[in-house]
Automatic annotation (TrEMBL):
One of its GO terms (molecular function) is oxidoreductase activity. This is FAD/FMN-containing dehydrogenase. Belongs to the oxygen-dependent FAD-linked oxidoreductase family. It comes from the Bacteria. The keyword Thylakoid does not apply. It comes from Allokutzneria albata. PROSITE patterns: FAD_PCMH, OX2_COVAL_FAD, TAT. It holds the Pfam family FAD_binding_4. Residues 40-62 are annotated as: Disordered.
Length: 503
């Protein structure tokens, strides 16, 4: 028997093994505060992020990079200069892009300066937080990249409100919160930036107990297209505050900092990992969807169908509470599947140790992915498991919703998937040379999944090939989101191919 700590030790696992163990969790979401987009009419995801210079009511002024550099407190890097390559996307399968410049901003004024130039020069602009954008949209061609990594402070006030810079990484967020006895439901990858995760919703192993990351957003400091620094909250710019809670990165401006409400850190978390015998994926997946729908909010458990001949299934997650109750539920689930358990490991630990336990490798890797949302139960789970038969490079990752997520009305925030059972991510390892082939396979799989479970999708797993992306990502909140985007960005400074800003 392999110890669970050895299965997912950060220094030992690659990104795919981490995903197989901990699921997508929103951890590898669109991790930019601004700038996700891509073609909407292709049959496979584009290898290079595409951007369109924003329309404007004024005549474009050629960008003056020397003047911009002199006005910034932080450095500005052009191609070939120090700091330029540091803004590369996490995904190594993407074609290498050539931004016009990378501004390593030091505060709100630097962000305002960058937006002012983009508006006047009609050049694309994209913000970079963690750089984990699935399609690399935080580093597009010919754009001004606003690098937010220096805005990474994390402070926890006595009232439990956490003030977090948009460039903060989750590892630092969790450490600072734990030191104060607090927690925030969010993703697991330690190098993911808080901004893109929260703006798209934010899923993780505590989601069912405490809700989305976006559900805890009290306020956001954001610079909009007019260069104005605003504080969006329930008491001011309320429509913008609503939109920032699930409306996706890149649509409304560049967020520089957040205020989040936090929860008391659980004294004890039980983490677990159960592997089932090869060939039983259909039975495990079918039993999982009924089991997790009935489970208490304290339980989060994903189901990963690992591609192969035949596919294998595993269930991993955590329970907010003691191991005795978790063990009882796992035993009941195993009996429900009728499948042989190949390995089972259960451990208890405190909040910070659990977050570190689920953390995956932070090294760059190549992949292509897409998603759907389970709006209804799977009538034929075996047909979905069969999608990765004989495909050892592809997995299906089912991450549960429900619990606290479902207690919020779908109109209360921009995140529309409140009644859904789970998200499912189609994930394939690949590198640049095989990107097109892998993307085609992923696209076919997500379309087959949509026919069975519904056409919703998760914006933080943004996919340029998703033809129905506006309705899939935003559902019945789409029209209101577009109204907010048009209000705060009338000239389309932040317009992009999969953006809410209409032309």
């Amino acid at each position: 028997m392999t110890a669970f700590s050895e299965v997912i030790r950060v220094s030992a696992v690659d990104r795919r093994n981490f995903l197989r163990t901990a699921g997508g969790l929103g951890a590898f979401a669109l991790l930019t505060a601004c700038g996700d987009g891509g073609p909407t009419n292709t049959t496979t995801p584009a290898a290079t992020p595409t951007t369109t210079a924003p329309p404007s009511t004024t005549t474009a002024v050629p960008p003056d990079w020397d003047t911009l550099k002199s006005r910034l407190k932080g450095p500005l890097a052009r191609p070939g200069q120090p700091g330029y390559d540091a803004a590369r996307p996490f995904n190594t399968a993407l074609t290498k892009t050539s931004p016009a410049a990378v501004a390593q901003v030091r505060g709100v004024e630097d962000v305002q300066t960058c937006i002012d130039m983009a508006r006047r020069s009609h050049i694309p602009i994209a913000a970079r937080s963690g750089g984990h954008s699935y399609a690399g949209y935080s580093c597009p061609d010919r754009a001004l990249v606003v690098d937010l990594r220096s805005l990474s402070s994390v402070e926890v006030r006595d009232d439990g409100i956490a003030e977090i810079g948009a460039g903060a990484r989750l590892a630092d967020v969790y450490s600072a919160l734990a030191a104060k006895g607090r927690c925030l439901p969010a993703g697991t990858c330690p190098t993911v930036g808080i901004a893109g995760l929260a703006l798209g919703g934010g899923l993780g192993v505590l989601t069912r107990k405490f809700g989305l990351t976006a559900d805890h957003l009290v306020s956001a400091r954001i610079v909009t297209a007019d260069g104005v620094a605003r504080t969006a909250s329930a008491d001011g710019d309320a429509d913008l505050h609503w939109a920032l809670r699930g409306g996706g990165g890149g649509n409304f401006g560049i967020v520089t900092s957040f205020e989040f409400s936090t929860e008391a850190a659980p004294a004890q978390l039980t983490v677990f990992h159960v592997e089932f015998a090869a060939g039983s994926a259909a039975e495990v997946l079918g039993a999982w969807q009924d089991w997790i729908a009935e489970a208490p909010a304290e339980l989060w458990a994903n189901c990963v169908v690992e591609g192969g001949s035949p596919p294998k299934a595993r269930v991993s997650g955590c329970y907010v509470g003691a191991s005795a109750r978790a063990n009882t539920m796992l035993t009941q689930f195993a009996r429900r599947t009728g499948a042989r358990v190949a390995d089972r490991n259960v451990r208890t630990m405190n909040y910070l140790a659990a977050m570190r336990h689920f953390a995956g490798s932070s090294g760059r890797t190549g992949f292509v992915a897409s998603s759907r949302v389970l709006e209804k139960r799977m009538n034929e789970p075996g047909t979905l498991a069969a999608l990765v038969n004989d495909r050892p490079d592809m997995d299906l990752l089912f991450d549960p919703l429900g619990g606290a997520v479902s207690t919020v009305d779908a109109r209360e925030t921009a995140f529309p998937h409140r009644a859904a059972l789970a998200t499912v991510q189609v994930y394939a390892d690949t590198e640049a040379g095989q990107h097109r082939s892998a993307a085609s396979q992923v696209d076919r799989a997500q379309r087959d999944i949509a026919e069975q479970v519904g056409r919703g999708a998760y914006v933080n797993y943004i996919d340029p090939a998703q033809r129905d992306w506006p309705q899939a990502y935003y559902g019945n909140n789409l029209n209101r989101l577009r109204q907010v985007a048009n209000l705060y960005d009338p000239d389309g400074v932040f317009a992009f191919a999969q953006g809410l800003r209409t032309r």
